[in-house]
Design brief:
159 residues, GTP Cyclohydrolase I, domain 2, 4-stranded antiparallel beta sheet, 3 helices, 24% helix
Length: 159
């Protein structure tokens, strides 16, 4: 059954032709909608291959690939608002590890998912790639938190 206007009440950016693109960190642009299938666990994966932020020391641009996967509870992140949120890191100066953790914490605060993980695959700078991984889960998903963290420690870049 299609979503009703009431179910779409908080989704204001999708379909809005007057969208403003902010390039300064803006977690307030994030929007949610209700999960119509909260009775079972399933995974939603969001892929942003063109993430950009700034080095906090040099101000030089950093480019990366961010992958967010989560098991929703009641709320889900609306994808256009997520895109605008991720764009807002464009002029934000933080290390790669900080960006990944900030994204994860903002999404936990926004949605209260059952489980979430954020992986950043950043382009090499000075011959070194950085691939930070952060995850979080509620009390019922702590085994998954540990399994995925252990898997991330064993998985080489790109796999």
């Amino acid at each position: 059954m299609p979503r009703t206007e009431q179910e779409l009440n908080g989704v204001t950016l999708l379909g809005n032709q007057g969208t403003t693109y902010n390039f300064d960190y803006r977690p307030d642009v994030l929007e949610t909608f209700d999960n119509k299938h909260p009775e079972h666990d399933y995974v939603v994966t969001l892929d942003c291959p063109e993430f950009t932020s700034l080095c906090p020391k040099t101000g030089q641009p950093d480019f990366g690939h961010i992958v967010i996967s989560y098991i929703p509870r009641v709320k889900m992140v609306e994808s256009k608002s997520l895109k605008l949120y991720l764009f807002s890191f464009r002029n934000h100066g933080d290390f790669h590890e900080d960006c990944v953790n900030i994204i994860m914490k903002d999404l936990v605060k926004l949605m209260d998912p059952k489980y979430i993980e954020v992986r950043g695959d950043f382009n090499p700078r000075g011959g070194i790639s950085i691939v930070p991984f952060a995850n979080w889960g509620d009390a019922e998903h702590q085994d998954l938190v540990k399994q995925r963290l252990a898997h991330s420690l064993q998985t080489p870049k790109g796999l």
